[in-house]
Recover the amino acids of this structure.
């Protein structure tokens, strides 16, 4: 769509429908949009782009937009996003606006943002804003909140079995796709825009995978070696599993455990594309599944990317901040402790476990690790920064754990602790 084009009325109608579905349910925004577009295949690419922009703008800035509009209605929020976030003029909206929209438009144009409360300005629920202030301080929390309202960059991981970072960068440049090496992850590439890559030869041949730089660093932190026995304990759709397998050079044995058969099924084509032959997906009923117990004390390295609040991924999944509360985080922390304790049984003497979350909250992170070490004296927390330094990777985290922040590091928010089992 041209920069000065008039927005069709159908764009707002479809955006409101998709937004209503996201706000009313538990479906992720990207899944809800995909479903909506499948049901309305006649929508053009430009219209789909506008619909997605509107939905994500509302999800990222819902509190401040609601304050400006003095309304929580999806249509009012969508109009607020078009005017206040996407910066469209009244002329460009003339096909959308109704006669009784004039009062809303005037409120939006004249709203004084300095009247917002801190949590409204941060576009966070009160409980989360207070947590971030307690853990990072008010100024740092404001910086984090600003970063979490931005769109995440598109980052690739080069599959070292099939390509080098230099060869992939050259291929992208030949296709006029702007890209640069990531600052920390040795196989990462950050794209300037968000080109469609699903059918690009680099992707279909398995030379690259889409993966945030922080997620790539978790695999580097575990540091699996050729021929080892390794487990990705909460494998999901396998992004980190693939990274681990490539670091192992497709040797040894790599278990991918998950409770969801659907997630493991989504991993299969990715494994095939990657060229890995050492990945063994295993669906388990829970962290206490007997199939896990049979491997007790046998694995060299175990990655636990535990289910969490996902606060560190709000750039990608802004809807989750409106679906959680402090009580749910407490319940997650209890589950994380159980998963960590169960996964630790697999680690042999002298082995390594990495506990990680994509959360920024201490309750899900260091508090879980501190309690685990206190209850399991056979494990000691190592220095994550030193482990990465040995691999030639410099990070800015201040303590022994790896802490990645969107505003400082340009990655999703991640926490990771290295736990070594004493010999």
């Amino acid at each position: 769509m041209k920069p000065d084009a008039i927005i069709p009325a159908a764009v707002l109608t479809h955006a409101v429908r998709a937004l209503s579905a996201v706000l009313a349910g538990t479906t992720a925004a990207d899944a809800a949009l995909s479903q909506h577009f499948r049901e309305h295949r006649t929508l053009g690419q430009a219209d789909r782009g506008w619909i997605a922009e509107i939905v994500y703008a509302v999800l990222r800035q819902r509190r401040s937009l609601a304050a400006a509009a003095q309304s929580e209605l999806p249509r009012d929020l969508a109009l607020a996003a078009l005017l206040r976030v996407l910066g469209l003029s009244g002329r460009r909206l003339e096909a959308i606006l109704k006669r009784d929209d004039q009062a809303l438009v005037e409120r939006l144009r004249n709203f004084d943002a300095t009247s917002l409360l801190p949590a409204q300005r941060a576009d966070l629920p009160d409980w989360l804003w207070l947590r971030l202030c307690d853990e990072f301080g008010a100024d740092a929390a404001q910086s984090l909140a600003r970063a979490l309202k931005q769109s995440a960059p598109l980052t690739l991981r080069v599959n070292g079995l099939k390509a080098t970072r230099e060869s992939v960068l050259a291929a992208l440049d030949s296709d006029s796709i702007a890209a640069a090496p990531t600052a920390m992850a040795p196989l990462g590439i950050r794209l300037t825009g968000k080109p469609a890559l699903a059918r690009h030869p680099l992707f279909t041949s398995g030379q690259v995978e889409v993966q945030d730089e922080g997620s790539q660093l978790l695999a580097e932190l575990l540091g699996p070696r050729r021929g080892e026995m390794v487990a990705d304990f909460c494998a999901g759709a396998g992004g980190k599993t693939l990274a681990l397998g490539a670091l192992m050079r497709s040797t040894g044995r790599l278990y991918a455990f998950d409770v969801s058969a659907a997630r493991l099924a989504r991993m299969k084509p990715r494994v095939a594309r990657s060229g890995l032959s050492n990945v063994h997906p295993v669906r388990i009923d829970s962290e206490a599944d007997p199939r896990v117990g049979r491997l007790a004390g046998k694995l060299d390295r175990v990655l636990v990317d535990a289910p969490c609040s996902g606060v560190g991924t709000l750039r990608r999944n802004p809807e989750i901040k409106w679906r959680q509360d402090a009580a749910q985080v407490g319940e997650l922390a209890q589950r994380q402790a159980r998963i960590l304790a169960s996964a630790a049984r697999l680690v042999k003497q002298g082995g390594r476990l990495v506990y990680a979350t994509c959360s920024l909250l201490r309750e899900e992170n260091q508090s879980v690790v501190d309690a685990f070490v206190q209850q399991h004296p056979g494990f000691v927390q190592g220095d994550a920064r030193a482990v990465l330094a040995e691999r030639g990777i410099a990070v800015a985290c201040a303590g022994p754990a790896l802490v990645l922040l969107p505003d400082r590091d340009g990655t999703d928010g991640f926490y990771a602790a290295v736990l070594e089992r004493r010999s």
Q: What stands out?
A: Residues 172 and 200 are 10 Å apart (CA to CA). Residues 326-344 form the longest helix (19 residues). The chain has a mean pLDDT of 94.
